Amino acid sequence: MGCEMRRNQITEESLGIFWEGKETKGITIYGLFQGNIIEAPIPPMNIWPDGCNYKSQKLVGSNWTVWLWDIIIVKWPEKSDWINIIRRTLKIMIDFGASIGWAGLEGFFTEPPNIFNPEHMSGGVWAAYTYDDIFHCNAEIGEQFKALDDNIMRELYKRFGRGWGP
User: Fold this and answer.
1) CB of 153 within 8 A of CB of 118?
2) Dihedral (C-alpha) 139, 130, 158, 29: value to the nearest 10 degrees?
3) Beta strand pairing call for 100-104 and 125-130
4) CA geometry: angle at 13 spanning 65 and 98, to 5°?
């Protein structure tokens, strides 16, 4: 699904993952770690509606690790709970040692040093939480989907794309 098409849909219609070879409702959460992190962080599934499930995946570079969770959504959280659930989910990545956690769309991941560069990831990141407790989220349940704007992406790129980390 193209980025322009996503922008014209409500959030729940814009977010999807591939699960067992099929596209379904869900989100992808990422965490960027320095070095090779072997142990997978465990997402806080107890805060998600019943029936949600996840799988983990690890991406590794020369001096970084990205852990990601695909979370299948059986029932979307209530609008009043959504932002808090996203914040708490991303914070688990931070508590586990990530420099930054973010929620992104399929097909928009770029490895460091270009991670968060708007030239590569514009329109593909919709929430982010940094190790120093800065949180951004524009995607609201029941509203038109909004990714983080390019100004925020440029800030994240400056901090985490080139020589990132606490």
Assistant:
1) yes
2) -50
3) antiparallel
4) 20
DSSP-derived letter for residue 157 is I
d(CA 58, CA 77): 26
Place of tokens 């299948």: 72
Cα separation, 37 vs 45, in Å, equals 21
Whole-angstrom Cα distance, residue 14 to residue 3? Answer: 9
Cα separation, 52 vs 163, in Å, equals 35
How far out from the chain centre does Cα 99 lie? 13
pLDDT at 161: 82
Judge if pTM exceeds 0.85. Answer: yes
Each residue's pLDDT tens digit, 36-64: 988 999 988 899 999 999 999 999 998 89
pLDDT in tens, 73-88: 999 999 999 999 999 9
